[in-house]
Amino acid sequence: MGHVIAIDGPAGAGKSTIARGLAEKLGYIYIDSGAMYRAVAMWALSMDIAVDDPVKMEQLALAAEIEMLPGRRILLNGEDVSDRIRTAEIASAASRVAALGPVRRALVAKQREIGEKNNVVMEGRDIGTVVFPAARVKIFLDADPVERVRRRAAEQPDIAPGELATQIADRDRRDRQRAESPLVQAPDAVYLDSTALTAEQVEEEILKLVRARISNGKGAL
Ligand code: CDP
After folding, report:
1. Atom 1 (ligand 1) nearest CA
2. Which CATH architecture has domain 34-118?
3. CB 3.0 to 4.6 Å from 119: which of 28, 74, 113, 151, for a disulfide?
4. Quick check: 55 and 44 in contact, CB under 8 A?
5. Alpha carbon of 34 to ligand 1 centroid (Å)
6. What is the torsion angle, in degrees rounded to the nearest 10, for the CA atoms of residue 25, residue 3, residue 80 and residue 168?
7. Of the residues 95, 112, 151, which should be mutated to test ligand 1's pocket, given the most ligand atoms within 8 Å of the CB?
8. Residue-wise pLDDT tens for the chain (221 aa)?
9. Is residue 192 helix, strand or coil?
10. How many CB atoms lie within 10 A of CB 203?
């Protein structure tokens, strides 16, 4: 198995920015597991399949050919869906799809396959608890809810901030309260609150842990 750095936490905590930066510095592969849930949700919506139908959704998740490429690009069945999965509608549908156990099992298998062969920085909700419980470095990245909405609003200026706040709160509640792999800090994860920190400061904190826990054999990480 490769080295795994697991970064979990709620929406808008800064996981993607941090995970991407770390992967680049370390020469690891960056994997956005949420993009997989978004891709399966998008496929269902495009075919008018109810995102909470466990049988049909399992079939879709198993049939989905998902490729994660550098530059945060994702292919679904050979088609580049990187931009199409970033809407608020898809985010909300993804969190419904993600509550289904059979869908999670199908996507977790794909995530493990990538971590088996590569050194990865993987971000999501259950990476340190379920996908890679033996990850060398586990971070639970959090931030104040107001700050999380502010960050997301800067990325999605087309949605009214009040509406965005409601959507994020709904999604967080679903993610934390679901029976299957809820969003929860792993007992051996390090809690980091990014509210008052720059991305560089968060990265530096995590790099300290990486240096302490992962040796590349040259002591040069
Ligand atoms: O980027 P953002 O934090 O807004 O969301 P995302 O990481 O793209 O994830 C979208 C949704 O997928 C989340 O709200 C979760 O419901 C779900 N998800 C999950 O359940 N488990 C993961 N490992 C990753 C995402």
Report:
1. 11
2. 3-Layer(aba) Sandwich (3.40)
3. 28
4. no
5. 4
6. -80
7. 95
8. 889 999 999 999 999 999 999 999 999 999 999 999 999 999 999 999 999 999 999 999 999 999 999 989 999 999 999 999 999 999 999 999 999 999 999 999 999 999 999 999 999 999 999 999 999 999 999 999 999 999 999 988 899 999 999 999 999 999 999 999 999 999 999 999 999 999 999 999 999 999 999 865 444 44
9. strand
10. 21
This prediction has a pTM of 0.95
Alpha carbons 85 and 199: distance in angstroms, whole number: 24
Residue of 33, 57, 35 whose CA lies nearest to 45: 57
Measure the CA–CA gap between 140 and 188, rounded to whole angstroms: 10
Q: Where are the domains of the chain?
A: 1-28+119-213, 34-118
For residues 6 and 129, the answer to whether their CB atoms sit within 8 Å is: no
| Amino acid identity, position 70 | P
> 105 is written with which tokens?
């099992």
**H or E segment and range at residue 32:** strand 29-32
* Separation CA 163–CA 179 (nearest Å): 26
C-beta separation of 19 from 128 below 8 A: no
CATH architecture of 1-28+119-213: 3-Layer(aba) Sandwich (3.40)
